[in-house]
Amino acid sequence: MVNERLADLARDTPETPPGVRLVSGGVLADLGLGLGLGAREMELAALAAGLVPARYLRNMRTYGPAAQARFLRSRVALAGLGGLGGHLLELLARAGVGALAAADGDVFEESNLNRQTLCLADGLGQAKAEAARLRASAVNPAMDCVVRAGFLDQQGFSELVQGADLVLDALGGVAPRLLLRRAAAQAGVPLLTAAVAGTSGYVALVRPGDPSPTDYFGTGADEAKPPAEVLLGTPPPTVALAAALQAAQALAFLSDQGSTEGSGLAGKMLLFDLADMTFATVSL
Amino acid sequence: MSITVKCYATLEPFQPSSDLAFRPGASVAQVAEGLGIPLDEVAIVFRNAEPAALETEVRDGDVLKLFPVIGGG
Q1: Beta-carbon separation of A172 and B69 below 8 A
Q2: Which of B8, B65, B71 sits opposite A177 (nearest CB)?
Q3: Which of A44, A12, A50 is nearest to A28 (CA)?
Q4: Rounded Cα–Cα distance for residues A53 and A44 (Å)
Q5: Do the Cβ atoms of A139 and A93 come closer than 8 Å?
Q6: Residue B2: pLDDT over 60
Q7: Has residue B73 been placed in a domain?
């Protein structure tokens, strides 16, 4: 019945792949209200009926309807809602990832304004978790976003990654990354990690059992000197680029039904430096 | 022999402006020390896009990437 109703309401567009038609979010919302179905369920029903929700039109030529449905059925864990995490939340919500479990215990301060997309001039002092929850539902109500306000310990990270298809490391500093790395490995979930300092950064997709960049970093407990990101800062383009690379790799991974074999950074590390515009992919 | 070195983040001040000439048998550590880099600041070494150690011997034409600990998010 849903399929028939949807088919009647679909629109054609030259931008969709052959055989695919478009349906607007308003139509889906109205129909969902009558059927008692939420935005995510309605979008999945539309895709199953060969209709593409219009909000994903510009995803189609890159990912296609089957991958879009896989995004909507995906569960992603996101640790950290600062610079990397704010951009990732935005990109994954717009891409149409269906479920996000996120965590951050911090509140916004002025020094976050240069790069953290969830941090607004009138939002200083606000919990990052609260800003993330509001932004996610404002951008894409189809994304089921559960945000935990708290700095996680080993047990907390284990709970965060439980049931996830992919874990995104958007934490600040080295020490908490080690806890997240252990939690992801123990849960058998691939970890997509990134970090930046100054104009440099890296992104790596760490499958369970793979080495991770953090394996080379010690405990991060050396208090003798400030960490690189404090010495060099975290300028906006470096952070946005690292997050965009993470998001691109995350969507490639999720669209490939969770196989890391076809994913470019599986077992590898991408190093970049925006000072000389160099990019290099190396083995770990 | 000639090698190429790329220094990232906090190691950038040690970036040589051109390829380096070294005698055969030199190690990554000797290359780094030759540039004035404190060895404890090098977290990861890549030699020709593969992980390497400070003790790894470099060869003519090698490309070395030296990466420090970074954790900014």
Answers
A1: no
A2: B71
A3: A44
A4: 9
A5: yes
A6: yes
A7: no
B43 CB neighbours in chain A (<8 A) are 216-218
pLDDT tens per residue, range A202-255: 999 999 999 999 999 987 656 677 889 999 999 999 999 999 999 999 999 999
Domain count across chain B: 1
Is residue A43 very low, low, confident or very high in pLDDT (cuts 50, 70, 90)? very high
Neighbouring CB atoms inside 10 A of A126's CB total 15
What is the length of chain B? 73
Would B10 be classed as within a structural domain?
A: yes
Q: Which domain holds residue B33?
A: 2-67
Please tell me if residue B69 touches chain A, with a CB cutoff of 8 Å. Answer: yes
B12 DSSP 8-state letter: G
Q: What is the ipTM of this complex?
A: 0.96
Residue in A171, A280, A283 closest to B73 by CB:
A171
CB atoms A280 and B43 under 8 Å: no
8 Å CB contact of A283 and B69 = no
Determine the residue among A192, A282, A283, A284 to mutate to test chain B binding: the one whose Cβ has the most chain B Cβ atoms within 10 Å. A282
Q: Tell whether B16 lies on the interface with A, counting CB pairs under 8 A.
A: no
Instruction: Confirm whether B40 is domain-assigned.
Output: yes
Residue B26 lies in a domain: yes
Which pTM does this prediction carry? 0.94
CA gap A280, A282 in Å, rounded: 6
Give the CATH number for residue B46.
3.10.20.30
